[in-house]
Design a protein that fits this description.
Order of helices and strands: HHHH
Strand content: under 5%
Oligomer: single chain
Keywords: Cell cycle, Cell division
Distance between the termini: 103 Å
Helix content: 55-70%
Number of helices: 4
Protein name: Cell division protein FtsL
Organism: Sulfitobacter sabulilitoris
Radius of gyration: 39 Å
């Protein structure tokens, strides 16, 4: 009986050691994946900051004004004035579409069938 207990204890210790070994490597892999993901996020943030700076540089009003003047013959862009805008109540919205009647009900025979006289 004592030998069986020693064998079971030894096997359980070996099994637990194998489990701990596998969990250790799984944890190390998850940590390296997390670090790689963080590196990717940092690189994406840096790339986004560069793109935002480029967008701000390209959208400078003086640059856009110069481009509009250079390409006036081709584009015909003019500056906006306040009197070019309309009010909301001046907008002509399309009328609501009529809903189709899919299953009509004949009401002319209903009063005769119920016995009600108008």
């Amino acid at each position: 009986m004592r030998t069986i207990l020693f064998i079971l204890t030894t096997l359980s210790v070996i099994g637990l050691a194998f489990w701990a070994y596998r969990e250790n490597y799984a944890t190390q892999k998850a940590l390296s994946d997390t670090q790689e993901l963080r590196r990717t996020i940092r690189a994406s943030h840096a790339r986004l900051a560069v793109l935002r700076a480029e967008w701000a540089y390209l959208n400078r009003p003086d640059r856009l004004r110069d481009l509009a003047e250079l390409n006036f013959d081709r584009l015909g862009l003019l500056p906006l004035h306040p009197d070019q805008f309309g009010r909301v109540d001046e907008v002509a919205y399309p009328p609501d579409p009529l809903l189709p009647i899919t299953n009509p009900v004949d009401v002319s025979n209903m009063t005769a069938a119920t016995g009600d006289q108008p």
